[in-house]
C-alpha cells in the first residue's frame, strides 16, 4: 500500500506540532481519562507525520518522537490494568528505534557539536559536522520511508481504533474492568506518588552515578514529568506549575549529559568508519567528557531543588 494514498499528508502542516494540554475533569473515570490522554498523544504523533514523511524537518521528527514517548509512558502508567498485544508493542518499539536513531544524529550535529565548538575553538570541526549531517540526512530519509510505509499505517490504524473504540476492554479482567470505572482522581494520586518515589530512589546516589545510572534517573524523571502533565488539570496550577518546572530543569540537565554519552558513541562510530576524522573525533569526545564533569555541580543543585518539592496532589 502506498502511504501517500493512505494518509492525507497534503492536508497536514509541514511544521512541528507540540503536544496540547490535556484537560481532564475530576468526574471522569479511569477509562475515560485514559482515552482522553491517549487521543492527545496520538494526535501529536499524527500532526507531525506529514513533515517527517516529506521533508528533513528536525523539529517535526523530534515532536513526533515526543508524542510516541508520551504514549509509551501512558501505557506504562496503566499497564496494571490494560496492555497492548505483544505484536503491537513490538511495532511501537520498532517505530521508537527508527525515530530515535535519526534524532540522535540530529542532536549531535545541531546541539552537541556546537557546544563543543564553543569550548574548543582551536579544533577544526567542519569535517566532523559535515559527516554527522550526512548521517542525519540518511537517517531522516529512512524515517520518511518508515512513515510512508504500510507497516506504519497499520500500526497507526490499530492504535487509533484501539483507543477510540475502547477495544482494550476485551482483554482485561473483570476486576480491572471495575477499576477502570473508578474516578481518575484517585488513580492519578497513586500514580504520581509512585512516579515520585521511583525517581527519588533512582536519584539517591546521583552525585556518584555512572552514565548508565544517570540514564535511568533521566528516564524516571521523564516518566514523572509526563505523568504530572497528564494529570495536572486535576490540581491547582499554583501547585503543579513549579513541580513540573523543577522536573523539566532536572530532565533537561540529565538530557544534556545523555546527549553527550550518545554523542560519544556516535563519534566513536565515525572514528572507526572514517580514518580522516579519527583524530578530531577523539579530541571532541575528550572535550565533551570534560564538560559533563563540570556540569555535575549544576545537576546536584537541581536535584536538591527537586527533592524538597511537594507532590501537587
UniProtKB/TrEMBL annotation:
Any Pfam family matching the protein: CHAD
The CHAD domain, residue ranges: 27-308
InterPro entries cross-referenced by the UniProt entry: CHAD_dom, CHAD_dom_sf
Origin superkingdom: Bacteria
The protein's name: CHAD domain-containing protein
Species of the source: Noviherbaspirillum saxi
